[in-house]
Amino acid sequence: MAVLRPAGEFDQSYAYDMATIRRRWQWIALGLFLLALYALPLYASPSLVSFVNRAAMTIVAVQGLNILTGYTGQISLGQAAFMTTGGYISALLMIHAGLPFLLALPLAALGAGLVGLIFGLPSLRVKGFYLAMSTLAAQFIIPWFVRNAFPKVLNGTQGLNVPPPEVLGIVFNAPTRYLYLSLSVLVVTTVVAHNVARSRLGRALVAIRDQDLAAELLGINLFKYKLQAFFLAAVYAGLSGSLFAHHLRHLNSETFNLTDSVLLMGMLVVGGLGTSLGPILGTVLVLLILELATVAGPTVATIFPGTAASTVQALRPLFFGVVLMLFLIFEPRGLAHRWKLMKAAWRLRPFSH
Amino acid sequence: MDASSPVLSVESVTLDFGRVRALDEVSLHVRPREILAIIGPNGAGKTSLLNCISNFYKPSSGRILFNGRDLTRVPPHRIASLGIARTFQNIALYTGLSTLDNLMAARHVHMRSGLLECVLYWGFAHREDLHHRRVVEEIIKFLEMEPIRKATVGALPHGLRKRVELGRALALEPRLLLLDEPMTGMNQEEKEAMARYILDIHEQRDVSIVLIEHDMGLVMDIADRVVVLDFGRKIAEGPPDEIKRNPEVIKAYLGQEHA
């Protein structure tokens, strides 16, 4: 699909052609949107604030997965394991080393990234399904390690009680405050992910996804760039895991599990693999659907009495599964693609094509 | 290096796949700024030879020297930075990227932005992108691809994709250009256009071209020299006019009784 410009708008320089945000009103709209998000606790209900907070933290993990799976084409089912890694590192750094949160968070991201590098090593030899299986190993090894290694520090299956973050004397111990933290991280990770996608690195990653042999013969070091993708994905997971851990205030080997890894992948598919917008749209939609399952649970329970307690638990995966299936059939390129089509249709109006 | 010394020397290269001998003691030289055509019946080993030069296959014996450097000892991803670019028989473009980004991706070896510069983008990576965008736009203009600049290549018709692939190889600014059947599946008009682009490249750029092609008339028209392979062996080498009359070549193509 060719790129459509609004009538009367001309690319007068390559820099202008390449820019993501091109018009002043777009900057203003973006500013207002961010302002509305940050001011959410002032006017929205606590449950909405809590939802946006959770969505923001989840999007970070999905953005990481997007770099690895969406752009580089390396399927990973280990994203939640790297969240566990990040969560534990920042929690331990705060509890035992007494580091401030603003130092523990980037260190946790870096630590998770390095662990991600190790689990990225098989990607040199195996592809597709086989790689998915080897990343699944992370999903078993890391929780096992957390349960069994260093019981005095990691506290086995009991897990850790995680202190709340404190920045500039403000303790972030409620969703209404935590939102500022999550949103700020999300803004940075969104910008970084977009920069990765549009630069030399992003082109190399997509080249590997689309034609790895040609990419290699045209000068791209497959191993180096696959590892960089694994590193970035795990850094994002580490950030997300750390944010979640300090928000939930408790962390054990099961806080982020295989189901979460699959959920993150599902969110990415629903949003659109290999797009900057995909992780955001997909995560919000899937979380909304899961929310709907929670709301619809009691109603469904009245129809099927005797299952009341487990209805909500059963409905969540059911709803998720159905949504994922519908997207795979009707819009495999995800919400981001649909959004692009809608924009194009609007620009061509009143002609259909 | 004087003008007549070869850019590429293939020295008695043998390639075995198990007990199948794909290339048998093949030697050839590519001189500066010439168009060398490699022809031969199906399965003669033409693409295998190109894959050896790209170091995608490792020869069982023999050497391949590029400007005096033994290519068999260079890892595949370093081949491009030495100045060798190629196109593929079955088109191997980055289908999810636009024409522009396919060419930009080929500028990879000329760019320096690392992980950190790319993450930060503004500043070095942005300036670098702008600089290489200008180089790529030259090639887009040269190959008359302006209308498809931002089209996703996966959706382009076959003939245009072949042209984008040629553009991608050119974006590497190679000293040696390997073209593996750049005209397959094209109609006469598209073939003539492609031949003109190849001649333009030959004329305007300091590059040697190795061309694999089945269209005999075209090969005879544009090649400076022709090498003929049959069952992995080189059976003839010389200017097009000589090759046309070579009985060995006629035998390989048409069978014994015509020779």
Describe this structure in words.
Chain A is globular. In chain A, strand 2 and strand 3 (170-171) form a beta hairpin. Helices cover 73% and strands 2% of the residues of chain A. In chain A, the strands form two sheets. In chain A, strands 1-4 form a two-stranded antiparallel ribbon. In chain A, strands 2-3 form a two-stranded antiparallel ribbon. The mean pLDDT of chain A is 90. Chain A is mainly alpha-helical and 353 residues long. By secondary structure, chain B is of the alpha/beta class. Chain B has helices at residues 46-53, 76-82, 99-106, 115-120, 124-142, 158-171, 188-204, 216-222, 240-245, 247-254, and strands at residues 8-17, 20-30, 35-39, 61-66, 69-70, 84-86, 176-180, 208-212, 225-230, 233-238. In chain B, helix 3 (99-106) runs parallel beside helix 6. The radius of gyration of chain B is 19 Å and the shape is globular. The N and C termini of chain B lie far apart (41 Å). The interface between A and B is large, with 33 and 47 residues.
Strand percentage of chain B lies at 15-25%
The share of residues in extended strands of chain A comes to under 5%
Separation of the first and last Cα atoms of chain B: 41 Å
- Kindly state the percentage of residues in helix of chain A: over 70%
Q: Kindly state the number of beta strands of chain A.
A: 4
Strand order of the largest sheet of chain B: 6-7-8-3-9-10
Mean pLDDT of chain A: 90
Computed Rg of chain B = 19 Å
Low-confidence blocks of residues of chain B? none
Main sheet characteristics of chain A: 2 strands, antiparallel
Helix tally of chain B?
10
Order of neighbouring strands in the sheet with most strands of chain A: 1-4
Q: What structural category characterises the helix and strand content of chain B?
A: alpha/beta
Largest sheet data of chain B: 6 strands, mixed
Helix content of chain B: 25-40%
Separation, N- and C-terminal Cα atoms of chain A: 11 Å
Give me the number of helical elements of chain A: 16
